[in-house]
Specification:
Layout: H1 2-13, H2 22-31, H3 42-48, H4 52-63, E1 74-78, H5 82-93, H6 103-112, H7 119-124, H8 143-153, E2 165-170, E3 177-179, E4 184-188, H9 189-196, H10 209-223
Parallel strand pairs: 1-2, 2-4
Antiparallel strand pairs: 3-4
Helix pairs in contact: 3-4, 5-9, 8-10
Length: 231
């Protein structure tokens, strides 16, 4: 019924067409372009997939990031002393809605959010990112997850095989380190503490501590996407 509805709408708006119409031919031609370096087209790759075309399509569906946090398969590890951990926990107590939070909860809220925390500040940084990075779709749910996955693994899709993504908190400068080969993200606990302890003016960006931390996370993620990553 859905196919019939599409055909009825298409025929009413565009007119009846056959599969030899130029735009169908162009689509098929593009779909069957060989992929380097193996020289196979997409249909051949799907046919060679273990489990056949059905398994290939299911894998594509499973790897697409739609905004499901649990699908990212992340693990968290602390590499900080007890005093720093306590300081982070205490600093979160004064932030609205963050009582009892630690970094995993903060990071989850960031990833599940949408939009640019500091639009004006982000506009000033446009030239800082690699050409493959675009802010189109930043308001959509799942954008931050895709960008994070891209920075941490080298791909904006979920890698359903191999090791999960690991987050580690370290005492370091304000730069988040990503290692795509091991799917690891190192977050500097000292800088996170600095942002939590800073006073903010609601008239200027960042307006509050959440905007500050989320802006920092997003900038670090986008800055880590480069030519070594894959689309």
């Amino acid at each position: 019924h859905r196919s019939l509805a599409w055909a009825m709408l298409h025929n009413a708006v565009v007119g009846p067409v056959k599969t030899d119409h130029p735009y169908f031919e162009a689509f098929v031609k593009g779909f069957l372009l060989p992929c380097k370096p193996i020289g196979l087209d997409l249909s051949q790759i799907a046919a060679h997939c273990h489990g056949g075309i059905r398994e290939f399509v299911l894998s594509l569906q499973a790897s697409h990031i739609t905004g499901d946090y649990d699908a990212l398969r992340m693990e968290h590890s602390d590499r900080i002393c007890a005093a720093t951990r306590t300081a982070l926990r205490d600093a979160c107590e004064i932030v609205p809605d963050w009582s009892g939070f630690e970094f995993p909860e903060i990071f989850r809220e960031f990833l599940e959010g949408s939009g640019l925390p500091c639009p004006s500040l982000m506009a000033e940084l446009q030239g800082r990112f690699d050409d493959v990075v675009t802010l189109e779709g930043a308001s959509e749910k799942g954008f931050r997850m895709r960008m994070f996955c891209w920075a941490a693994t080298g791909s904006p899709h979920i890698l359903i095989d191999g090791m999960p993504i690991e987050r580690a908190r370290l005492l370091n400068h304000g730069t988040i380190s990503f290692k795509t080969c091991t799917r690891m993200m190192h977050v500097p606990a000292s800088y996170l503490l600095k942002l939590l302890g800073t006073s903010y003016d609601s008239e200027f960006e960042p307006h509050d501590v959440k905007d500050s931390i989320f802006h920092w996370l997003l900038v670090q993620i986008l800055s880590s996407i480069g030519s070594y990553n894959v689309v």
